[in-house]
Design brief:
The complex is a heterodimer of chains A (256) and B (889). With 256 residues, chain A is of the alpha+beta class. Chain A contains 6 helices and 12 strands. Chain A has a domain at 2-9 and 37-98 and 147-255: Alpha-Beta Plaits (2-Layer Sandwich). Chain B starts with a helix and ends with a strand. Classes of the chains: A alpha+beta (256), B alpha/beta (889).
């Protein structure tokens, strides 16, 4: 579908380079699935482009929630016109990690540091295993992964000691230690899950981007639960996924 | 700070956790060895307890990253603010119509759909802990002042700063010239102590932000329907036309993106009139690209189509407007062809838009600073506002609402003697001048020495005059004329660079305030300090202290008031005595807390400050009286009580506080017995006693030196209703009395909203219009040292139309020189078809040469290209009236 091929040239080239690798490792995923615990959730997002106003509140809320350094964005907002549009009128779209069902970033990891969590489908990075090779950065067709090169925000005090709640690990980000030197990405704020892997929206335990969105454009929930808001939206509205033809099966949908 | 709300949220969490745990025991038999999360392995629960969501406190407050004042919850751990989140109990974050709010409201959790805050609120902690903040009072040692002059700052103690500043103030007051003090302030925060200080000190020259912002809009609406700030009921509207407003991006009230985008999903059409395809226009169904400052002409032509084709709301026009016939005759020749010539909008587009607007119901037309910040902004805005009268949606669902706002009540101190001096800026000469003053004319007079007297001391609180007043070079020139200039700010701004003293200000997370929210019914939010409070070692005064132990702005003002011993009429030292206890209060903070408590207790909430803190989300929401419609039609009953002997009282007999306010003789109210020189101040209408001015109903007697407010209108002289607060009680298409007034240039005011071109028009040397706007990423000129905000918007390219750029040989990304007769600046070009071909423009606020290390040198400032310029009806600064030449650098 041309309308949704928001592929930048850079992204497209990236994907072409790693396609072969992704294909060859599909079998490995099947083996893992056989021994994995039962799938309980398929967390995903439905982002309503009619409601996104391009304000980037999600970007900042995410940075503060996850204490990400300069150059590392777990979500971004595109302000580009649709390809082939007659004018430069922008379409705004928040763009987190899509936590794909068939994530091209996963099989390329030489040390199995990044994987899709079997029970809820969130694609994570185990900082203790990640060697920072950045194959996954190249493999992601959506540009959702970032290397932490150790930069700090100029003038933000104590940035070096800021504690991020990511993965409930509460790491102090100090030179020479993870996550500096690792690849980082959106986790759907899984650190806000309780010990049973459940979110609680009323208690504020909900992904930071969805929790702050001024246009109420970012809807989060369990795509496997037919009663969830996200499932209802997918039934009621026309939804698309980006670069559907790549077969990554993103768990983030866009309402146009 | 234990908070009810937190406890409730916490309990809810606990219940949810329990429930989920029970469920998992049944379903997770196959989960086996792997914990729920399936990795990566979490850290210890000790870390979670120390740093997680349940650590520390979540304290409700209100944001002030901009003037929007949205509700927030602040996560404070070990005395440090770590996250700001939306406050779902505060309607300002969600809706501006009460039904829209309450339909989605759960008393335990607030708005069920969840609430919002914008990027500026989310990023605000980075400003709180910004190492470039001013931490201690600074004194200038270098008498030379200028952009490139090192002030030679010397840190001094608080006591020294207070004593020295008080001594300068005392000197002008003792010789009987207190008016030589000029005072500028932000308009949303801690304004009351500053206004009271100025009044008690004896200067009439308190001014604030509004005349840099939207007083032309206020004037336009006042001329039309008597209210300063009607608000658009977007969510119930079906046809929305916005002239020069960017509400889904320049967010201000964070409910705006929701109610506008949701209105569209409910079937509304959104049309945005703007020279730039703004981010709001990007959300619209149609962008009408218009020549800057010609919006009034477009509005008149739309009116022409609606009148010509008889599409107007006949009943509303008949019953609730005056001057329609004059308007109809006036717009008869304001044809689409006429307007097309002026506006560059094709006549066919105007025809179609006029018919669409005339037939869609409910429809609304709103206008903000785009058309407003030109010298012809008021009459243009008036023409736009009148379209709402044609479509009959004033104060009706889906139309332009008259907010029914009751909030905190501030009792201004009674003065020893009235402030007698004239205002320096001559505000009184402007027929729709606003109490916020006329910055532009004040700066002009200060620079030229052309005012009624020459002020010697200036105090500027939380404002960056140099970059915010059009004509930065002239503003600098003016400020340099002051013998003593005191700036209270968090950063050494371009304005503070010219100060003799810089007093460290507070971040909004360090201070109190009450926020009357801009929704259509009564809602009041509390801002409270959530960090700091470790006390202060630098002053003999007692106060709470921000994170550097600095005074909050209200504490600084109160301390100055104490230094000067400012007293009220009855001899009370105003800044030392508590407003509720009436006892001397040592702590400056406690003094202000009593002020707030008194405002709350005597105002609509009727609660103390402590009770306010305990309300869910620390916000008082009127649950009984929500948004009301067609208020103008409501019959009014007099509150005055007439005793059998003719004495007229303000309250019923059983109220011990009642006072006699008039005397009734026959059918007429006199202020006192005729024998004592009483004059008529009202009359009996429909059996009730009313203070009147003609058929206008007033809240007090119209006597010399008093300015009673209009509260209603006696229709036909006999039928008291609220009406509109105008001279006819109705929406006014035309008003012959306006022609008796003169604007600041001496020109008679147009009785009808005549389109007159703005003063400064392009010519061959400076052929392009230069405009500016705001976006979600930044506030005024204030937020540019925030590294998080700069990470999403770190520069403001000059947006140029693609055809225009091609003609000028400019490519996207080129560095260009932008020049006007007043100055020049460099900018990076962004070439796009989002801009009108005769116009260039950029986001406002960039291009700092001070403020902080992050802000400095990023993007372009265009203030030097303008000169001091303001609209002669309202005093609105004309930020958008600039013409330039652009060439490749």
């Amino acid at each position: 579908m041309d309308l949704i091929r928001l592929t930048s040239r850079r992204d497209f080239l990236k994907h072409a380079a790693v396609g072969a690798v992704a294909g060859s490792l599909a079998a490995q995923g099947a083996v893992a699935a056989a021994t994995a615990p039962e799938r309980r959730h398929r967390w995903g997002m439905v982002i309503d482009t009619e409601r996104c106003v391009g304000c980037e509140s999600c970007v900042i809320a995410c940075k503060v929630e996850n204490m990400t350094p300069p150059g590392v964005f777990y979500t971004t907002v595109t302000h580009e016109p649709l390809p082939g549009a007659p004018s430069d009128k922008p379409v705004f779209m928040a763009k987190p990690c899509f936590h794909c069902e068939e994530p091209p970033c996963v099989p390329v990891c030489p040390v199995n540091a990044t994987y899709k969590r079997p029970r809820d489908g969130i694609v994570v990075v185990d900082y203790d295993r990640c060697i920072g090779c950045r194959y996954c950065v190249a493999a992601c067709p959506y540009g959702a992964r970032y290397a932490d090169f150790g930069d700090d925000y100029e003038l933000l005090p104590a940035a070096g000691q800021a504690v991020s709640p990511e993965y409930k690990q509460y790491r102090a980000r100090v030179p020479g230690a993870s996550p500096i030197g690792n690849v980082r990405k959106c986790t759907f704020c899984l650190h806000l899950q309780d010990d049973n892997g459940e979110y609680d929206r009323d208690a504020g335990r909900w992904p930071a981007c969805a929790k702050t969105c001024p246009g109420h454009a970012i809807h989060f929930g369990d795509l496997d639960d037919p009663e969830s808001e996200v499932s209802r939206l997918l039934r009621e509205r026309n939804a698309v996924r980006l670069k559907e033809d790549l077969g990554a099966e993103p768990n983030v949908y866009y309402l146009l | 700070m234990d908070q009810n709300v937190n406890r409730r949220r916490f309990l809810k969490t606990a219940v949810a956790l329990g429930g989920a745990a029970a469920g998992s025991a049944v379903t997770s038999a196959t989960a086996g060895l792997v914990r729920a999360a399936d990795g990566p392995a979490p850290g210890s629960s000790e870390l979670a307890n120390r740093f997680g969501r349940e650590a520390g406190d979540w304290i409700p407050s209100c944001c002030n990253a901009c003037g929007g004042q949205c509700g927030i919850f602040v996560h404070v751990v070990d005395g440090r603010a770590v996250k700001v989140e939306p406050n779902p109990f505060n309607p300002n974050n969600y809706a501006n119509i009460s039904t829209d709010f309450f339909e989605n409201y759960d008393p335990a959790i607030g708005v069920r759909e969840g609430s919002s805050i914008c990027p500026k609120g989310n990023a605000s902690i980075a400003t709180l802990y910004d190492p470039d903040r001013v931490q201690r009072p600074l004194k200038r040692t270098n008498p030379a002042k200028g952009r490139d002059v090192d002030p030679g700052w010397q840190e001094i103690g608080w006591d020294q700063a207070l004593e020295e500043i008080a001594a300068k103030l005392r000197a002008i007051r003792e010789v009987g010239t207190p008016e030589k003090l000029l005072w500028w302030s932000e308009d949303h925060s801690f304004t009351h102590p500053q206004q009271d200080f100025c009044a008690l000190f004896g200067t009439p020259n308190y001014s604030n932000h509004s005349n840099l912002c939207d007083v032309s809009r206020k004037a336009s609406f006042k001329m039309v329907m008597g209210d300063e700030r009607p608000l658009a009921d977007f969510i119930q509207s079906k046809f929305i036309v916005l002239f020069g407003w960017n509400p889904t991006s320049a967010i201000k009230w964070v409910h705006l993106p929701r109610i506008i985008t949701q209105a569209r999903q409910r079937g509304a059409k959104l049309v945005v009139v703007d020279p730039y395809l703004s981010d709001t226009a990007a959300k619209g169904d149609e962008w009408i690209s218009i020549r800057p400052g010609t919006d009034g002409a477009l509005a008149l032509a739309l009116g022409h189509v609606i009148v010509r084709d008889e599409l107007y709301d006949e009943a509303f026009v008949r019953d609730w407007t005056s001057g329609f016939d004059a308007y109809a005759a006036f717009v008869a020749d304001k044809t689409p062809d006429w307007a097309a010539e002026i506006t560059s909008v094709p006549a066919a587009t105007i025809e179609r838009l006029g018919r669409e607007l005339g037939t869609a119901r409910p429809a609304l037309v709103d206008v903000w600073s785009g058309p407003g910040q030109h010298t012809n902004g008021v009459q243009g805005g008036r023409a736009i506002a009148l379209l709402n009268a044609l479509v009959g949606t004033w104060d009706r669902p889906g139309g332009m609402m008259i907010p029914d706002k009751r909030g905190a009540k501030h009792a201004s101190p009674e003065l020893e003697k009235p402030v007698s001096a004239a205002r320096f800026d001559g505000l009184g000469d402007l027929p729709w001048g606003h109490s916020s003053g006329v910055y532009g004319r004040g700066f002009q007079r200060l620079a030229d020495g052309s005012g009624p007297y020459q002020p010697t001391i200036g105090v500027c609180v939380f404002q960056n005059l140099v970059m915010s007043g059009p004509g930065s070079l002239r503003v600098e020139e003016a400020l340099k004329k002051l013998e003593t200039f005191v700036v209270v700010d968090t950063h050494v701004s371009e304005t503070a660079l010219l100060a003799d003293y810089v007093i460290p200000g507070t971040h909004f997370l360090e201070r109190y305030d009450l926020n009357s929210h801009w929704v259509t019914w009564s809602v009041l939010g509390l801002r409270q300090p959530v960090v700091g409070g470790a006390g202060q070692a630098q002053s003999t005064y007692a106060f709470r202290g921000g994170i550097f132990g600095q005074m909050a702005e209200y504490e600084f003002v109160a301390a100055l008031g104490r230094e000067l011993g400012l007293r009220t009429k009855d001899g009370t030292e105003f800044f030392s005595v508590g407003a509720t206890s009436k006892e001397p209060v040592e702590s400056l903070t406690a003094w202000y807390e009593e002020q707030l408590s008194n405002e709350l207790k005597t105002g609509a909430p009727g609660v103390t400050l402590d009770e306010m803190k305990a309300l869910p989300g620390a916000v008082w929401v009127d649950q009984k009286v929500g948004t009301t419609y067609e208020k103008y039609a409501a019959p009014l009953k007099s509150k005055l009580v007439v005793d059998p002997d003719g004495a007229v009282f303000d309250k019923p007999a059983e109220d011990p506080k009642r006072k006699q306010v008039a005397i009734l003789v026959g059918e007429t109210l006199f202020d006192k017995p005729e024998a004592d020189g009483g004059v008529p101040v009202g009359r009996l209408i429909a059996g009730g006693a009313w203070f009147t001015d003609g058929d206008k109903l007033l809240d007090g007697p119209k006597l010399e030196g008093k300015k009673p407010k209009q509260i209603g209108y006696a229709f036909g002289g006999t039928d008291p209703r609220r009406g509109f607060f105008t001279s006819t009680g109705k929406v006014q298409f035309a008003n012959a009395k306006f022609a008796e007034k003169q604007d600041a240039t001496g020109r008679p005011v147009d009785a009808l909203p005549e389109y007159r071109p703005r003063d400064w028009q392009p010519d061959t040397a400076y052929p392009l219009y230069l405009i500016n706007w705001k976006e979600a990423s930044h506030t005024h000129t204030r937020s540019f040292n925030n590294p998080l905000l700069m990470s999403i918007k770190g520069e403001n390219p000059l947006v140029i139309n693609d055809a225009t750029a091609a003609r000028l040989g400019i490519a996207d990304g080129d560095e260009v020189i932008v020049e006007s007769p007043n100055g020049s600046t460099r900018a990076r070009a962004r070439v796009t078809d989002r801009m009108h071909p005769e116009v260039v423009g950029a986001q406002h606020g960039f291009g700092h040469w001070a403020l902080g290390r992050v802000a400095k040198g990023r993007g372009s400032a265009f203030g030097d290209l303008n000169t001091i310029r303001y609209d002669p009806l309202s005093g609105q600064a004309s930020h958008k009236e600039i013409c330039v030449n652009v060439r490749k650098a």
